[in-house]
What does this fold into?
Amino acid sequence: MYEHQTTVRVRYAETDPMNVVYYGNYAQYFEVGRVESFRELGFSYKIIEELGIMLPVVELNIKYLRPARYDDLLTIKSQIRNLPIDHRIVFDQEIYNEEGKLLTVGMVKLYFMDEKLGNRAAMPPLMLEKLSVYFS
Amino acid sequence: MYEHQTTVRVRYAETDPMNVVYYGNYAQYFEVGRVESFRELGFSYKIIEELGIMLPVVELNIKYLRPARYDDLLTIKSQIRNLPIDHRIVFDQEIYNEEGKLLTVGMVKLYFMDEKLGNRAAMPPLMLEKLSVYFS
Amino acid sequence: MYEHQTTVRVRYAETDPMNVVYYGNYAQYFEVGRVESFRELGFSYKIIEELGIMLPVVELNIKYLRPARYDDLLTIKSQIRNLPIDHRIVFDQEIYNEEGKLLTVGMVKLYFMDEKLGNRAAMPPLMLEKLSVYFS
Amino acid sequence: MYEHQTTVRVRYAETDPMNVVYYGNYAQYFEVGRVESFRELGFSYKIIEELGIMLPVVELNIKYLRPARYDDLLTIKSQIRNLPIDHRIVFDQEIYNEEGKLLTVGMVKLYFMDEKLGNRAAMPPLMLEKLSVYFS
It folds into this structure.
């Protein structure tokens, strides 16, 4: 299993009149978690795009347990529990507040897609190499 | 069952470098669908808030089948399949493009919450009255 | 002078804990105003992009006079006061609420840019033709 | 003069099909710059709100010189050039990319407002004390 943590500070723009983060904005926090987990592995999402591979999200499930509030420093925990063996990659993601309370649990499924051909692709070899270390 | 349809035009701001709507922005389209379905029933979400009732989202599931693109005129279909009998209300929502292709399928679960007491509440009587007509 | 009006409903996602529209989100309303004014003229912004012309914003000035609130049905007034004679086009835009109160005044300057060459371009002939009718 | 610097990483959600940051999203970066400058001074914007003071933006001017792109690590420079002597506070803000190129220049004017009374207020004494050190 590969696991990664990063933090994000809640912006005023991301909160709503209930004084909590708008439910759609957690998708951005999950994005930050995935992007930084890629960066720690040694390749950025930008590099993946430059290889002609896109990673559209095909499924998103979120449970909102407790609200995140303005100015909270959130911890985003991102896990890849299974080494991708085809065009699919699944992230299990959790968001915690500064007191360590679990706020949000999410699952994000993405497809590797060949940008030019427009069809499903395998995970780039560089990425497989870096990631497989965690699944031996 | 109660069913409602409304439309929304995709904004440039909502699309990303893949030239498609960013995956987190569908939450806003679903919100528009729910809000307009409430309005058609004869009470606005604003009125619910003025009654001291909040409706936070507690669960969101989305499947992204086909991308929505800039300037697409999307149809948002919102269904309430079961009359709420406690603090929970579930919307099944679908998004179609102008050619009638199904792009996105979502399920959004919300809780009625008493804003002052901070705990779960029943659906406001006015809302129950208007909605129950569709479940006889 | 060319003038156009359209409406937009304030989304919950666009408001903040002050219970008003977040100051950065007016840029999206102004975008809706410009896009719909183009559409009424007989060509969509999408068509301009397909001609290989991009329209990046190079300057934005906004004065916030009164707040827009959740669920307000806003009227966006967009004016082109001078027929573009080079790569620049300027929109003067205003936002009103349902009571006719002026909420926001903005000026947005954009450049016509050739997407491939990456440099400034003239307004597409089709657009000039449609627009010049209003400046005779 | 008081000056402060912080950084922000461009999110995929914040970019558009031109592969650059959407023009309205710079308002969020400027917000991050102001909030972090307050924090460095020894009080958070959250504390100001808890004192019953709101800080709505009343004017925003932005010049877009060069585009910010996906995954860019931006530096936000925020200056308070004049010590507020009434209800107004003005931030001059600039955004630079990693190569030190100036991308965006902005001016943001805000009002101190008493949340309960709904009228203009003076800068909170704590804030005046911390800030005046830089203007002797």
Observations:
- Chain C has one domain: 2-135.
- The CA atoms of residues 87 and 122 of chain C lie 5 Å apart.
